[in-house]
Design goal:
single chain; Nuclear Transport Factor 2, Chain: A; globular; 3 helices; alpha+beta; disordered N terminus
């Protein structure tokens, strides 16, 4: 069996004894080149949240409770009951992750989909982000965001 070693001349090799200061560490290959697939802290928590919103409820094998009902609600009538169900679902998803706290959530409808705008606080990082998730009929999720450190973060 061949052993493949990847080396990048622009990035020096790190010692295996190097101490990491990051709180959270993970990886993702979505939207990244394969030079560095590691994710830390904010990027990792955000990727985990977006993964949850990209899955239709009942779609994940052996864990049908994971996912969101938003994909099934795109063509539902624009009623208060539908909006309340979506808001409850967003609150449930955020409550499942102890690293994140939901500060506000709003649902807006547009011609071929809906937009969920939420303000989340990354607890241990003390960073607040305003996320706008656009769910449309093409079964794609587009995300826009703005983030800021909270007043007590010391920035």
């Amino acid at each position: 069996m061949a052993k493949v070693i990847y080396s990048n001349p622009r990035r020096p090799l790190r010692s295996t004894n190097e101490k990491r200061t990051q709180l959270f560490k993970g990886f993702s290959t979505v939207g990244r080149d394969f030079e560095d697939i590691a994710l830390y802290d904010y990027e990792l928590v955000r990727a985990d949240l977006l993964n949850h919103f990209n899955i239709r409820k009942g779609e994940k094998l052996e864990n049908p409770e994971v996912g969101t009902i938003i994909w099934d609600s795109i063509f539902e009538p624009n009623t208060q009951a539908t909006s309340d169900a979506i808001i409850a679902d967003v609150q449930s998803i955020i409550q499942q992750d102890p690293r994140v706290e939901l500060e506000s959530v709003d649902v807006d409808y547009f011609e071929h989909g809906l937009q969920v705008t939420m303000s989340v606080l990354y607890r241990q990082l003390n960073v607040q982000e305003q996320l706008s998730l656009n769910f449309d009929e093409t079964q794609s999720l587009s995300v826009t965001s703005s983030m800021s450190p909270t007043a007590s973060a010391g920035y």
